[in-house]
Design goal:
Chain lengths: 612, 407
Amino acid sequence: MADYDYAKLGLKAGIEIHQQLDTREKLFCHCPTVLRDAEEHNAEFFRYLRATVSEMGEIDRAAREEMMVMRPFTYYAYDTTCLVENDEEPPAPLNPEALALSLTIARMMGMTPVEQVHVMRKLVIDGSNTSGFQRTGMVALNGSLPTGERIESICLEEEAAQRIEDQLFSLDRLGIPLAEITTAPDMHTPEAVKAVAAYIGMLLRSTMQVKRGIGTIRQDVNVSIREGARVEIKGVQELRLIDEVVRREVQRQVNLLAIRDELLARHASVDEETHDVTALFTETGSAILKRAKTIHAVCLRGYAGLVGREIQPGRRLGSEMSDYAKKCGVGGLFHTDELPAYGVTEAEAASLKKAVGAGPNDCVVLVADARKKVVCAIAQVRRRADMARDGVPEETRKMLEEGSSAYMRPLPGAARMYPETDVLPVTVTDAYYDALVLPELLSDKADRYVRDMGLDASIARQMVYSRQCQLFDEAVSRGVKSTLAAHTLLGTLKELSRDSADVAAVPGEALVDLLLRVEAGTVAKEAIPPVIRALSEGQDIDTAINAVAPSVSREEVRAIICKTIAEREAFVREQGMRAVGPLMGVVMKELRGRADGKVISELLKEEVGRIA
Amino acid sequence: MMMESGTRVTCRYAGTDQTATYITDRDGMAVIKLNSGYNIGVDPACLTVVALPERAEAVGVTVEQDPSLPQLSIISTGGTIASRVDYRTGAVTSQFTADDIMRAIPGLADIAQFRSEVLASILSENMTPAIWQTLAKSIFTEIKNGAEGVIVTHGTDTMAYSAAAVSFMLDTPVPVVFVGSQRSADRPSSDNVMNGLASAAAATSDLGEVAVVMHASTNDDACAIHRGTRVRKMHTSRRDAFQSIGQAPIGTVAYPSLDVSLTKDAVRRRPETEPVLSPKLEEKVGLSTFYPGMHPDLIRAFEGYRGLVVSGTGLGHTSAPVIEALRSLTDAGTVVVMTSQCLSGRVCDRVYDTGRDLLAAGVVEGDEMLPEVAYVKLMWVLGQTTDTEEAARLMTTSLRGEFGRCL
C-alpha cells in the first residue's frame, strides 16, 4: 500500500489499551481469574437482553441498533464461576487489589486519581455481559508518557464473557479485572501509534501483575483524518498489526471521501421507493435468491461503480452497506456493481435494473430473506447509502484479519452510562495514592542487568520480559551468577520444554536450590538439564540429584578415567596428549554430568601424562 | 451544596478543566458526570456553574389500547418491576405509575387493554396489613367493574405474604396475578419484561384464583404460576426465587410464546360468579420462630395477642419451657398455631411426647401451611370470628388450597 503524507491528511490517532489484571479474585465477586476449557462447563442457561433508558432518559444509539433483532444468548457456567457472573446476585464490593493495581499504573504515568470512584454500567447488549452492561469506573485522569503523548484516563472495568460462537458465551472470563488506558489523539503516524502501544504494554508488564498471552491485552484504535470522522477499531490483539490497522483506516477514509466527492459531483441520491422483485428471481440459478421468501430492491441513483469500489483491502462500499443490513438478521446483500455473479445472470441483472428504473449510472441493491428482516435491511442500506454523501460516518468497527475492519455499531454516546447502584463509591485518599509502591520499568531493569551484571543486552531484554524474571532476581540475589541463572532460566528450560518436559511444574525454589548447589560445586553444571527433568516429573531435589547425578568423588572419577585409558591404551600411547580431547567426550558420557568437567579434564591430563 | 441535578459545570481537576453535568452530592463529594458518561466524585469547591439544567420535555407517550382485547387492571404497589435510580441516594427506588409499566414492557398492549391504578409506591418490606386490605378492596372493585383479570405489581420480599392475604380476603372468580422482578427494571437483563408479559398472559387465562407469576428457572424460557397460599421466596437474589412448597406450580407460561398451561389442580375462571370480599383482619397476631435456647419470655411477650403462629422444629416442636409459656397464652384465650420451619411437610404433634404436650397445651396443628401463610390466615380467621374453637376449626380447614392436595 502506498504510504500517505499523514501530516497533510491531518491524521489523529489515539488508543485504548485493555489489559487483564492478574488478581487473585474477579472485580466484583470472589471467583478466581482463571480461564477454562469450554468442555469443562457444568451448567448452561439462556437469556434475552433489551436496551434500557439511561439516567438522562435516552436510549443509547449503539444499544438501539443491537436491539434490532431479539436473540437468545446462551452461557456456559463453571465450578469457578458464581451467581454474580450469572447475573443472579448483586456484585461484591470493588476488588481492592484491582483498584490498587490500576492506581499503581496510573501513578506510573503521573496521573491524578479520582477522589471518589463511582462504578458505572456501560450498556453492552451484544450478549457478552449477562447483565447487559459492563461495570466500569474511572480511577484516574491526565497523565503523560516520556515521549509526550497524553494519557486521558484509566478505567477499571470488568472483562466481558468470551464468545464461543455466535450467541454462545463462556462465563469464565466475565469479571476478570481490566485496566482500560485511554490516550489523547496525540499520535500522527501509524508508527507512533505502534510505539506508544508498545511502551504502554511494557509499562503494564513491569507491574508483574498483569495477565499474559494472546487476548489478555487488546488495543482499540481511534483514527480520524481531516474531513473524515472519528472511527474506533476494536479488538487489535497483536501489536504487530496496529500500524497496519491505522494505515488501512486512513486509506478507507481517504477513499470514502473520494467517493463522497464523486457522488456529490454526480448529484447522486437514494430512491425512497422500495421494489418487491421477488417474482424476478423465481427461476434464478442463485440458491439464496431462489429460496428467499421476499426480495426487495432499492435504486441508488448515481452510485454505479462506487458501491463496488474497493476502499480497503477486501472491503468495498458495498461491504459497509452489507454490514449495516446484517444488523437486521439478514446474511448480506447483492448489488449490481458485482453482477452478474453468484448465480445471477446478466439477463436477470438487466431485468432487475429495468424493474426499478435504473439507468447506467445507477446501482441497485437487493436483499433476500423473510419479509420483516428485508424491510429492516433495506432501510439500513438506504441509511448507509445516504451517509456516503456525507463522507465518513462515526463508527465502532471490529478488526478483520490482517488489519482491515468491518462495521460493528455507531460510536456509543454518554447515554450508555448508568450508575451501578449496587456498588458503593470508593474514596481514594492522597495518603493511599502516595503510598503505592511503583515497580521498576522493564526497560530500566534491562539496562540495569546490562550495567550491573554484565548481561548481554538481548539476553537482558529477553530476561525482563520472561515469566522467569522474578526467579532470576531471586537466584542472583542469593548468589547465583547472572549468566548461569539467565542461561538456565531462558535456554535450558526452553530446550527441555521443547523436549516435552513439563517445566512449568518445577517449583522455582527447587530451581534456585539447584543453581546454588552448582555454584557450590556439589552438582555438576552438566547435570542441570537431567535434574530439572527429574524435578518436572515430581521428584524432590535430593532424590532427583541422587537419581540422575549422584556426586562422584575425585577418586571415583580417576578410577573411571584409568579404566577408559586402559581400554584404549594403544590409542593413548600413539596419540599422547592429543588423546585428551577425544577421551574427554568418552569420560563425560560415562559420568553423565555427575562430575564437573573441569575436574575431569584436570585428572584426565594427569593420567594421560603418566602414559604418554 | 445547593445545586440542581443536570446543572452544567466545569471542574478544575488534574490540571485541566473538565466540563461535566452535576448529578448529586454523596458523602461530602459532588458527583459529576463527565462528557464520556463516567461519574466521578470531586471536591464541591472545584465546581463552577456554566449553565442551568435544560428542561426536558415530559415524555408522555400514550399507549394505544385495543378495545377488542380482554380488559385487565394493573394495580401497582411498587417494587423492582417498576424502579429506577434515585439521584439523591444513588440507590434503586420504586416510583413508576402503572402507565410507566406499560411503557416499560412493550408487548403488554398486544395482550389486553389495561386500566391502571397506583395503590402505593413502596418497597415491599414496608407493606402493612392495612395496605393488604386496601389492595383487596381495590382488586374487588376492579373485578366488579369488569376486569377480566387483575395484575398486582409488588416488591418480591413480601409478595408471598400479600398474595396469601388477598387469597383469604377475596374469593375471586378471575385471575389475580402478583408479579415482580428480581433484577431491577433499569438493566437490560431485567426479568421484568418476561415476568410482566407472562403475568398478563396468566391474567387473561382460564385461571380463577390468586397466584404469583415469576421466572420458573434461571433461563428466559418460562414463568411458573404459583398458588398464592403455597408460594415462598426461597432465594435472596435468583430470578427463580419463588417456589411452590408442598405442591407443584399450578401452571406455567411459556416464553416468548406466552402459551399458558394450567394443571388440573388450578382453580378455573368462573365467569358467572361475583367476587366476595371479606377484608377484616385481626392485627394482634404474631409469628415467632422457635430455636434451641429460646427464652420463654419471648413467647410471653405475646400476652394479650389474639393469635400466635409458632414456626417450630421438625414435626412441629418447641422446648418444654416454651410449651409452658404457650400453655399460659392458650389459657388466656390466644389461638396458637404450630407450623414447621422445615417448610416442606405436615405438622404432626402426635408422634413424640413434646408434640403431645403441645396439643395438651392447646396448640392447633397447622398441617402443611407455610408459617407466613398460617400467620396471614390466622389474622383473617380472627377477623371473621371471635370464637376460639371456630377459629381452630377454620385453621384446620383448607380454605384456599393452603394445604391438602387439591381444593
